[in-house]
Design goal:
heterodimer; A: mainly alpha; B: 805 residues; alpha+beta; eleven-stranded mixed beta sheet; seven-stranded antiparallel beta sheet
């Protein structure tokens, strides 16, 4: 459990720092890194980084959007289409980042296992 | 097993990266698009309008005051800095639109949206849009380096903005379509001006008329498409004395039209592109100051075509609507004068049949073989190999139609002669108008204007009013260019141009007002050939009748006229139809709708049902009358509304009234009224079932569509506004008054204006579409005409641009 919490926050912090130098896939890099150095077990391998990035991206987009009356978010939520609901758009944003990160973390875990065995 | 898992998870990682990082069909690269650091969330912001920015190449400090509508008031020390700042600010607020419009102009949309735009791109290139822009640049390089230098300043300003952008700052459309802005060049300004030329002087029916003449004969053609209707209320008053014109019309060589069968023609600009403008003299104004108004009717788009600015140097101070890509104010005023434009709608496109030699390297002209020149159009297509289209050019212009494009003739083609290809110095007209102090300087500024021909209305604080129909017009022989001509006969070439000083104009006419609404420029007494190229016949009469109806007018009267919904067209045909239609066969439902339109007072107000009934009824009727013009084999254009109504009322028994399909029966106009009415009723009932009612606002459902095919997320729908085409408030579904301006010539002038959009091009900004509601209600913004660099109460923030060392 301790590792889960540790990994969760480490993923967010590393993702945040990497976002200054890398494009959107910095979240994948962050999740990969934490999966190598803070090993998790079973479903947590995927879900902890998934949740971490979901929370990070959803919160970040909420902060950006709430200061502007959700003007653009409402429109993009028509474009995608999500019924014009900005909160669903934030959730989707979070899930997209989370999904990419979770998969990268699974790969990291498999890589760590193979590397360790050698 | 471990290796298998490793490989599977690796593949999954690569796949998810690829899927989220790649544009798939219409779906943007979703990871790039949605991430909060560089995706759309970064566009969730209202623009910053304060601070200090250093700009390379600036000569002096420039102050930009913003008011609460995001209108920038620019105070520069010289013109070079002024246009650099205009470029910078236009890019800052409208970058995507600025660039997209020139991509559309030059036939480069395939680069952005892929193969589906290829036909469009080929059409624009074969129309010679890029060629025309090249000619304009070449002209300026040779004759007017000063204007070209200002255009370069504008480009430098745009590029100063682009170069400091990071990917997260790109407008949201770039993120949606996954591409990035490129550098701006002077040629792009020339392309934008070509775009305007196409929009306003790119309409013609010559090839359709050729088919019509061949199929129906000259007598029928002349009846359906007369040079003048039975009434004319021209731009230049009828009583104008033309005796000062001492160069005659070109004598007719008596050459015959080439009666080819033409199956398909290139797309045309919107036929409703037009405008109103008018001005009253001091004597006809309540306050004693002349008053001027303008409202250009264009597609209702977001971001709006107009961007309002104040542009000043110590020597001049202009204010009004600008167009992203062009320098200076287009429709506006300065301390001394006000001006505005409507389209003059003159026939400045003609078509020539070209005969090639066997390898298409030469074409026949004056009994000899002349060399064809070649322009290879290299079209980049996103995700595909380039498409190379070879366009042949003759001295007439580009051979638009040939065996490679909409034609199957091996050794022949149709070349386009278009004033837009002549090269010219249109930009200078605006730069000079922005600085003009009086009537003489206004006339001086106009002489550079070639195309699209415009009715330039004018008023000055000195008390003058005027209107000039300005453009470069060929001095045509009677009937020249109505139909396809033989391109090998030199007599069919444009022989000369009408000298600019003989362009139709009027200054301080006796009636005390000037006006234009895309109607006939002149009556038959003007000594040059003017072909009816689709002239308006309703708005002009409503406007002129209004100004003849009383002695003095105020700004409030001007507002009322802008928002006037009187449907003269309906008033001229509906009573006749009601009277002549056989009502004995109508059922109860039909009778109730009959009574609804009978009670209508011909105002297209939002709560009326009459306009919807009329639209349906007349629309059905028009199609029944001109069923002869429906053809899949040949391109045809059916006659104009005015002439249709004239024929219905005066030639009700003519064979055109007969419905072709019903072989055993001969219908008359009277029969058509009933057939059309009944089918209109069934359609109206359908609409009522679908929408609840067919009140005009619901029926018309006016919308302002985003430039990307009215993408619903970035568009505004169901805007409650009355009017329609042929009405002074010319608002139809997606077309109408794109900028309304009224200027009273106090010293300095006082002005109001509005447009259906907002100053920002960012759908995430509150300034994106904030003016639409007020526009629909007929309200205006007070335009804060600052007289000095001193910020007033109206100013909410200030941006300073400083030279970068």
């Amino acid at each position: 459990m301790k590792n889960n919490i540790f990994n969760f926050f480490a993923t967010i912090i590393i993702a945040f720092l990497l976002s200054f130098v890398l494009p959107w896939w910095s979240v994948m890099t962050a999740a990969l890194a934490t999966s190598l150095f803070i090993p998790l077990k079973k479903a947590a391998v995927f879900f902890v980084p998934f949740l971490a990035i979901l929370v990070f991206w959803a919160t970040y987009s909420f902060i950006l959007s709430s200061g502007n009356d959700y003007t653009l978010a409402k429109r993009i939520a028509v474009l995608l289409p999500l019924g014009g609901n900005p909160y669903i758009l934030m959730l989707v944003t979070g899930c997209i980042g989370g999904l990419a990160s979770g998969i990268a973390a699974v790969f990291g875990k498999q890589f760590a296992l193979v590397a360790k065995k050698r | 097993m471990k290796y298998a898992k490793l490989i599977i998870s690796f593949v999954l990682t690569v796949v998810i990266f690829f899927v989220l990082n790649t544009k798939l069909g219409a779906i943007p690269p979703i990871g790039k698009f949605l991430n909060p650091y560089s995706g759309i969330w970064q566009n969730e912001t209202t623009e910053t309008t304060s601070g200090d920015i250093s700009i390379p190449g600036l000569k002096d400090k420039v102050t930009v005051h913003y008011d609460d509508q995001l209108i920038p008031h620019v105070f520069a020390q010289n013109e070079s800095d002024l246009y650099k700042t205009q470029g910078y600010l236009t890019a800052k607020h409208r970058l995507w639109q600025l660039e997209f419009q020139t991509f559309a102009a030059s036939g480069r949309l395939s680069e952005i949206i892929g193969e589906k735009a290829l036909d469009y791109d080929r059409t624009e290139r074969r129309r010679g849009m890029g060629y025309g822009a090249d000619q304009a640049i070449a002209y300026m390089e040779k004759h007017d380096k000063e204007t070209l230098a200002y255009i370069q300043d504008y480009a430098d300003g745009v590029n100063a903005y682009i170069s400091q952008l990071k990917p997260e700052d790109y407008p949201v459309e770039y993120k949606l379509l996954d591409y990035k802005p490129e550098a701006w060049t002077p040629k792009k300004t020339a392309l934008l001006l070509m775009y305007m030329t196409k929009m306003l002087a790119g309409y013609d029916d010559d090839l359709e008329y050729t088919n019509t003449l061949r199929l129906l004969g000259k007598d029928n053609f002349d009846l359906l498409f007369p040079d003048f209707f039975d009434i004319t209320d021209p731009v230049i008053p009828k009583e104008t004395d033309w005796s000062f014109i001492d160069i005659p019309q070109t004598a007719s060589p008596g050459s015959e039209a080439v009666l080819d069968t033409i199956a398909e023609t290139i797309s045309k600009p919107h036929p409703d592109n037009g405008s109103n403008n008018w001005a009253v003299s001091g004597a006809k104004s309540v306050t004693g100051n002349p008053i001027l108004a303008n409202d250009p009717h264009l597609g209702l788009n977001l971001p709006s075509i107009w961007f309002v600015m104040q542009l000043s140097t110590p020597n001049h101070n202009a204010f009004g609507a600008t167009i992203p890509g062009a320098l200076g104010v287009i429709s506006g005023f300065n301390q001394n004068i006000a001006w505005g434009e409507t389209n003059a709608t003159r026939d400045v496109i003609d078509w020539y049949k070209i005969e090639f030699n066997e390898d298409r390297t030469k074409y026949k002209y004056d009994g000899k073989w002349e060399d064809v020149s070649i322009r290879v159009e290299d079209i980049n297509i996103r995700g595909k190999e380039n498409y190379k289209d070879t366009v042949l050019y003759t001295h007439h212009g580009p051979v638009v139609y040939d065996k490679n494009f909409k034609s199957d003739k091996e050794l022949a083609g149709y070349a386009m002669k278009w004033i837009g290809h002549e090269g010219g110095n249109n930009q200078k007209t605006f730069i000079e108008l922005n600085k003009a102090k009086n009537y003489d300087e206004y006339v001086q500024a106009l002489q550079y204007w070639n195309a699209p021909a415009q009715n330039f209305v004018f008023a000055s604080t000195e008390g003058d009013i005027a209107i000039w129909i300005q453009g470069k017009f060929p001095n045509k022989w009677e009937g020249q260019g109505k139909f396809l001509m033989d391109g090998s006969n030199p007599e069919n070439d444009w022989q000369s141009f009408i000298p600019q000083k003989f362009n139709a104009h009027t200054k301080n006419p006796e009636r005390g007002f000037v006006s234009s609404a895309n109607q006939h420029p002149v009556d038959e007494s003007y000594p040059y050939y003017v072909f009816n190229d689709g002239y308006e016949t309703y708005r002009n009469r409503v406007i002129n009748d209004y100004f003849n109806s009383k002695d003095k007018f105020s700004v409030a009267d001007f507002k009322n006229l802008h928002n006037n919904n009187y449907n003269l067209k309906a008033a001229e045909i509906v009573p006749y139809m009601l009277e002549h239609m056989d009502t004995s066969l109508l059922d109860e439902e039909e009778m109730s709708i009959y009574n609804e339109i009978k009670a209508w007072k011909f105002n297209n107000d939002i709560d009326e049902v009459g306009p919807s009934i009329f639209r349906q009824w007349y629309g059905k009727l028009y199609n029944l009358v001109w069923d002869e013009f429906v053809s899949e084999e040949v391109a045809l254009s059916s006659p104009f509304t005015y002439q249709t109504i004239y024929l219905l009322k005066n030639h009700g028994e003519h064979k055109f009234m007969d419905i072709v399909k019903t072989e055993d029966k001969v219908e008359t106009a009277q029969d058509l009224f009933l057939i059309a009415f009944r089918s209109a009723v069934s359609k109206l009932i359908e609409i009522r079932e679908e929408k609840g009612d067919y009140k005009w606002a619901n029926y018309k459902a006016t919308y302002a569509g985003h430039l990307l095919q009215a993408l619903p997320a970035f568009s505004r729908f169901d805007i409650p506004i009355g009017g329609d085409r042929n009405i002074v408030n010319a608002t139809s579904e997606n077309h109408g008054p794109s900028w309304r301006m009224i200027v009273e010539m106090t010293s300095p002038p006082t002005a109001i204006g509005i447009y259906p959009g907002g100053q920002s091009g960012n759908p995430g900004s509150k300034y994106y579409d904030n003016l639409i509601n007020d526009w629909a209600e007929g309200k205006y913004l007070q335009l804060n005409f600052l007289q000095s660099n001193q910020a007033t109460d109206a100013i909410i923030s200030t941006l300073t641009l400083t030279p970068k060392n």
